[in-house]
Amino acid sequence: MPRKQRSLCLILTGVLTLAADAVAGQEPGAGQESAETAVVARPVREAPGEFQFVRLAYSANSYGRGGWGQRRQMWQTDWPDAEHHFSRGVDRLTRIDVAEAGRILTPLDDEIYDYPWIYAVEVGYWYLNDQEAARIREYLLRGGFLMVDDFHGTWEWSLFVASMEKVFPDRPIVEIPEGDEAFHVHYDLDQRVQIPSRMFIYSGVTWEKDGYTPHWRGIYDDDGRLMVAINFNMDIGDAWEHADWPDYPENMTALAYRFGINYVIYAMTH
Amino acid sequence: MFEALFKYSRADYARSDLVFSGDLPAWTLYLLAVVAVIAIGTLLYYRRATAKWYQLAVIGSLQLGMVALVIWVLLQPGLATEQLRDGENSIALVLDNSSSMSYGTPDSRFRSAAQSLSGALQDGELPGVAVRYYELGAAAVRVDNFLASAPTEGATAIADGLLEILEDSRFSPLAAIVLSSDGADTSGGLTADELAELAAYGIPVHTIGVGRTQIPEDIELSDVTIPDTAPPGSTLPARVTVLHDAPGTTAIKIYDDDELLQLVPLELAANAGSTTAWIDVELGTAGPHQLQFSIEGVTGETELRNNSRSALVNVGNQDNRVLYFEGEPRWEYKFMRRAVDDDEDLRISTLLRVSPNKFYRQGISSPEQLEAGFPTSRDELFAYDALILGSVEAAMLTDEQQSIIRDFVSERGGSLLMLAGPSGLGNGGWGQSLIADVLPARLPPTATDTFHRKKAGVSLTPQGQSVQMLRFDSDDDANSRAWAELPEVADYQVIGELKPAAIALLNAETDIGQIPLLISQPYGRGNAYILATGGTWRWQMSLPLEDQKHETFWRQLLRALVTTAPENVSLTSKGDKRNGTIQLRAEFRDDAFRPVDDIGVTAVASHEGGESFSVSLAPGKEPGVFVGEFAPGLAGTWYFEALAERNGEAVGVSRSSILYESGQSEFFGFRKNAGLLQRLSAATGGRYFEPGDLSGLADLLRYSSPGITETELRAIWDAPIVFLLLLLLKGSEWLFRRRWSSI
Asked: What's the predicted TM-score (pTM) here?
């Protein structure tokens, strides 16, 4: 098949797939659904490991409340394959004792303190009220670690920052320096390549909205330890989720695994 | 009464043998007895018709008793008593003339003691027995009499003094020693060895205890315990004990030179005997800090010198190195490192296996440190003070490395802490490793999975309650509550049977019952610990940010690990109150902690006032150890520096300091120690007396068996009781005959 035709065919397949997803998840009237009731998580492994992938089930802002045809909440994006694949990767590539299944917790779950590493996706659509922001602040200052991912462009950034500033009104968000241990604790991650979503397969572009340039940003505590790893203008979660999809670039998945593993090991050592 | 009836005292009878001195041959007495019995029997036989049987029995018994009494008198019984031979014996009167004997109004203890000694000999004399006089303080000094004596000695060493007296009397018969004292021994009391040595001489030591065992009008700062070294900015726990015999209130003041650091009110509970307070003392800058602890006196208190004590704390930067070998990334590792991050005196270097093929080094001081992995030589490992082994298999280390770890504890004196984990303790095969002997528990074999990722509560054991490193609060009850309120740990591991020398400091309350959580045991020069959890990090994540218990636990535990590990070059100084000297002990070892002997060691002693002296140190009994003695003369802070040289080149130097207080100890613990005196008398065959009742002492001395004695025979056939019995027997017979008239 000629290259042009093949691209067209892929785009068409992608559009049809998304449309089918939307129709299948159609729930008329589903609007601002609470995070706690939205998902029935997989059964947790009876003997949990030292590390368990925990996904933050946040409340959505007014732009992320779903709507007609959208069954899932934004925080569910890439669930459950992302954590399933990534957890297996951590287990295979490190000495960390990893629980097979992930967990889902809201900011106000008391159990959140039992999991010092937590992941939040599509945070351009999150909304933290004062109580939730205070809980996240306490969690991070006690020693917890938050990785956020998969939000793009100026507008989503502003929405992310609006809630993040409630968590830390006085702590700046900065670019993580090249030499930071987060990029070297296990893998030396000198490449700054934009990890794309699966849409890259259809469109050939790695960016979304106006998020052309990837940024690895962070928030540090008073002792210079990274508390929040902000993966902006990239989609590491998609790379984990589609690790088993032959069309998704293998090198992107590998890079996404490496960033994730470094964040986990950094959180367990700093 | 006894003496009136029996002519002599009970004591006379007790110390004497019964002898018979009658001149009649024995057969005549037997014959007399037989004839008397036959005569009495015949007489009664002929009266059987006119008298009843019981009347005959009574009369017969009385007559037989009469015959027996006559025979007793004819035997001429007497008491044979050993007593000191005139002119050939001596006794020692010992008067405690230490400063504590000056206490008391209107009559001091000293005056009371001198009077009691005089009374003991019935105005100072014992006919036929020479009396030697001794004053007892730090040593015994023979004097002509006690007329010029005064309680001025700055120390009391009863055992040493008595041994000197006994030694002094080796060639002249000494029958007994009489010691009049308050029993306030400042040399540390009487040990079992000292008592045995005194008893071996066979000379009884009679003691007279003067003074009062309780002095309600006095309170005493009996003890202050505080670490003698600390890093800058430390907060040190000071344990202050106040002795008191009555309830009341006081206040504890703590000064750092002239600066008041703390003022803590203290309630003195009734019937408590002593009250203890824990006070946190903040010390700032580096250097020696001379702390002054004092308590406010109570109404009527006259002896205020026992209301203050001094302590010297050397504050300085120390380089305490910990090596942490961890087999897998985990939260315990992260949170433990964070807990001690601010402690500048603890440097934790870690070797963390992040993947099967990669180790991550953290906290290293140079790129070369741990570059080749876990240390493979003694020099390299012995540079650390403590070693932590995490969730890592024993097979990760070679036999040689395991042997070095064993030597690290036993020879270097380092501390070993093993943590629980999926690959730790029994799971990691450490129970079958070369360091199994070092560990305080017999770990289960690897075939059993002993690690449980289940939460468990934590409780202090009775032993743990008294351990400083497990203190969250200076108050015992508050400390116990703090432990009880801690969140559960994330996991636990079963460690097997504890070894005999091991003690459990913490227990885990698990779903399978209570199991030891933190245990320790000494091994050689060092110590080994097991913390059977890898989940104390939950304390940090589950408690509010302001809570410091997790940080405190790890700081104190790691500090305990490193502070017990000796340096390879060390100098210790210790005051000896008995002879007013300071003992110096310098130890020199090489980097592998092997003793160094081919060196010469000199020391310089410098007083805070500026004077300095040279002190020679000679090789001690142990290899690498050099000892010396120094008579300071001046009270105050003394600084010492020991320099080791080989062929004129300095190979090592060590420094030490001590606060030397001269003569102060007499004012502490000065309540009458009757127990000590009673033990002394009991062990030597003597008796304890109160000054108001010395009856019997003179006789004890006169008949003291250890002297050169002779036998005195004293008749008792003429004792009043004999004649009373005669009257009683004949009078009774007469009365019965008159009543019954038929016999």
From this structure: 0.67
